[in-house]
Amino acid sequence: MSTAIRSDEQIATDVRDTLKWDTRLQDGNIHVDVFDGIVTLTGNVRLLAESSIAADDAWRVKGVRQVINNIAVSPSAERSDADIAADVVNALKYDNRVDLKSIVVQVAGGVVTLTGTAGSTIERRAADEDAWYTPGVIAVSNQIEVSPTKQRPDGEILTGVREALTRDARIVDATRISVSVDHGKVTLTGGVDRPDERRAAEEDAWFTAGVSSVTNNLTISPLAPE
User: Fold this and answer.
1) CB under 8 Å to 78, separation ≥6 — which residues?
2) Which of 205, 213, 97 is CA-nearest to residue 145?
3) Most exposed among 71, 140, 169, 173, judged by the fewest C-beta atoms under 10 Å?
4) In 3D, which of 195, 193, 194, 166 has the Cα closest to residue 179?
């Protein structure tokens, strides 16, 4: 199936409209430039989470080949590292997806570093999100290692990932994606039509039980129309 080529102006308009539509953002502080399908976001936001949300919104627009996120985080009020650390710890404490006993929080200059272990990818990402939404945080370094509480044979993991890819409506042709597993570490190779398809495949792998890491080597290579 062929896809119409969209101009940079059309893409830029749609990205700006998407940012304006998203009530989680203050779109007036984010600037959008597009060249050859590559979107560059600049400006500033109050929370680190807003920067991530804006990039996700840009990826959703048809015709986008890449998103460069240069948005700066400018907290509305200066906060001490100790206050930030306390708030991150509290967020983790009350998040039922996270086991705080296995995670260490450190903050320096507004940059949060998370270390320790998580029993699943969901727990690791939850800890990431809790830090992103904490006021005063300008960056997060998530060094938490995933150590699945339930060990699974590589063969079972391989089958689980392949089945997830086949079920996923976002993936046009799952047979183009090759999956290998080595001691819980998944590697994806092959080609996909769109950037959002590449990201969907990585998510499917990450959320499969027993997976400890994912290496995404998929390339964007649309098939020529028949």
Assistant:
1) 136
2) 213
3) 169
4) 166
> In this structure, which topology does domain 8-73 adopt according to CATH?
Histidine-containing Protein; Chain: A; (3.30.1340)
Q: What is the pLDDT of residues 41-60, one digit of tens each?
A: 999 998 899 998 999 899 88
User: Whose CA is closest to 38, among 3, 6, 60, 68?
Assistant: 68
Same fold for the domain at 81-146 and the one at 154-220?
Answer: yes
Beta bridge partners of 215: 187
Residue 105: CB atoms within 10 Å:
22
Residue 45 pairs with which residues in a beta bridge?
73
Cβ atoms < 10 Å from Cβ of 49:
21
Write down the architecture of domain 154-220 according to CATH. 2-Layer Sandwich (3.30)
Considering just the CA atoms, what is the radius of gyration of the chain in Å? 19
> Could you tell me whether strands 219-220 and 72-73 are parallel, antiparallel, or unpaired per DSSP bridges?
unpaired
Indicate whether this model's pTM tops 0.90: no
Please say whether the beta carbons of 97 and 119 come within 8 A: no
Model confidence pLDDT, tens digit, residues 3-26: 568 899 999 999 999 999 998 887
What is d(CA 86, CA 223) in angstroms, rounded to the nearest whole number? 50
Beta-bridged to residue 139, according to DSSP, are 111
> Locate tokens 């060990």: which residue?
151
SS3 139: strand
Cα–Cα distance for residue pair 204/170, rounded to 1 Å? 11
